[in-house]
Structure prediction request, 162 residues.
Amino acid sequence: MNAIGNRKGFTLIELILGIVVAGLLGLFTLQYLSRVAQTNQLLSGQKTLVDEGQRVLEFLSRELRMADVTNPITFTPTSITFDKLNGYVQDTNTTGITYAFNSGAGTVERTSGGTTTTAAAQVTAFSVTQPAADFYVFNLTLQGAQGQVFTLETGIRPRMTT
Prediction:
């Protein structure tokens, strides 16, 4: 019999090449999965931040739409105060509802009946403008942990206008 016909198994060089190729494939796969995980974590943080901003603007919109316009709505460039027609089960107070930017804490705070709660965190700017009678525009700028900046804007007209 010749030597080629008796060959059973792999040579040492073939085994080493197989291990090196498998190692390189594993390394590239690990780097790819690591990047996917980092991207997922970054996007999750951004989504949470934007969701919080949308939630505070939606809550503000709902409350301001039910404002009692027989009492004046007062605002500054960074806050708004109004009375509403009806309270909620969670907050029965209907007078002196205030949304204000706290630049020191980087938050938008809601004050009602002497109780102040944080409506949104990681806020870098909150502005209130009145481009027309009975119409208010709110801009909310949030900054994520990785430095991403998101600006949300909404316009609100109270339902019960004069």
Q: What stands out?
A: The longest helix spans residues 12-65. The beta strands are 74-76, 79-82, 97-102, 107-112, 115-120, 123-132, 135-143, 149-156. The helical segments are 12-65.
